[in-house]
Design a protein that fits this description.
By secondary structure, the chain is mainly alpha-helical. The chain is built from 11 helices and no strands. The chain has one domain. The two termini are 18 Å apart.
């Protein structure tokens, strides 16, 4: 279970919306402020909503017992959703064409308007848990730990999920000049490879979740 939670957190880190936020923030004049404000809003929202979901799930029969009946549903649903998103991202037109034909996303518009709205973006974009976080929250509820332990696990999960935001912030705090150079190079790499990275991880995670669903179904 801990390994599954860690892998789900890593998969969540390359969710297309989060990658888009990192790209927009790193291209701005004040990436530290935008990243910090988005992280504050996102982490706060994720932990509050996540703990509410864990508490609700713990009070249901869906995750109780040695063979929870909801396990196959969660895994199959998460796996199919991941494959659908991966397919949509893979079929998206190249970035230059996509940007010229479409209006900027809500996240992009909010981030470009400053730190306060970056915080708002962090809240708005994380009110509803993504596919992988929702499966992870089910796993956490299923562990049956006390609330304090659940909170620690939820926080740890989201700290890993926001790694692409936290790592640059740590770098800016201790080595701003080197971090500015490295993040510039990383931003160029991410612009060129973000779609491929997201597609590969989403497809792999989708297949693994469906496999977990089949295994859970065989045990039910």
């Amino acid at each position: 279970m801990p390994l599954e939670l860690f892998l789900l957190a890593l998969a969540s880190a390359v969710w297309p919306i989060l990658l888009a936020v990192v790209l927009v923030a790193l291209q701005s004049e004040q990436p530290q402020r935008l990243l910090a404000c988005f992280l504050a809003g996102g982490l706060l929202t994720c932990v509050v909503v996540g703990m509410a979901i864990v508490t609700l799930l713990e009070d249901t029969d869906a995750v109780s017992g040695s063979r929870p009946p909801a396990n196959p549903i969660f895994y199959f649903g998460g796996g199919v959703a991941a494959l659908v998103v991966a397919t949509r991202v893979a079929r998206r037109p190249p970035r230059e064409h996509h940007e010229s034909n479409d209006q900027p996303s809500l996240a992009t518009r909010l981030l470009r308007r400053g730190a306060l709205l970056a915080f708002v973006a962090g809240v708005v974009l994380n009110i509803a848990p993504g596919v992988f976080p929702f499966v992870a929250l089910k796993d956490i509820a299923q562990l049956g730990h006390p609330a304090a332990v659940d909170l620690a696990i939820v926080v740890a999960f989201y700290v890993v999920m926001f790694a692409f935001i936290e790592i640059p912030l740590i770098g800016y705090a201790f080595a701003p000049e080197a971090t500015a150079r490295v993040t510039g190079e990383f931003n160029d790499w991410l612009k060129a490879h973000s779609r491929k990275l997201a597609v590969v991880v989403l497809y792999a995670a989708g297949v693994l979740l469906i496999a977990r669903g089949i295994a859970a179904l065989s045990l039910s």
